[in-house]
Amino acid sequence: MRHELAISVDGPTASGKTSLAYALAGRLDMRVLDTGLTYRAVAYAASRGPVSPGRQLFEVLRHEPAMPGTRPHGPTVVYHRENITDDLWSPEVEQHLRAVSANPAWRHEITEYHRTIVDRHERMIAVGRDCATTILTDADCHIFLTAADAIRRERRRAQHRAQPERAVNVGPPTRLDDTIREHIARQSHGLVLDTTFLPAVAVLRAVVHHLGAPR
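The structure corresponding to this sequence follows.
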């Protein structure tokens, strides 16, 4: 599908990318695909029994992107007809998540699945760790958010206080994060933004300004 408007949002953990994605979605009437939730869904499936990379899993696992204004009721992740969205932050999921994320076969299958989701919608924001170089390479705007490690740790602690089931650890930016940041910085329609000292409303304002006229 030819997208009417497509935006990718990348960045390390707790850099503010998910908050920005939802704020943009509400402002621009777009859907949000949080790619990390699919990885967690596969990890959830792995915690329930052996699963192998392949399209078969996505016949029983469905990730429906959030619609504008639906948070916290969207997105929806279903496994074997059961809504598992609220179960994706359990310790069991955390235990399997690293193995899923590090498996090239799983990364390929999940990326292909994300592409099928993106292709179904005309106005889409994809948020995650490598959206600009995988599922939305032709986006109208590529955004990379970063922040000082201490700030990201404090943000994650605040998330943990609000949602105790969420992990509290935050590591330094990865080599992949650095690669994506450098890639986006080279794009004429790319924006790299340090959110260390910026409140969420200022981040949104900067991105909307970068996008230009309302769409």
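The chain is about 40% helix and 15% strand.
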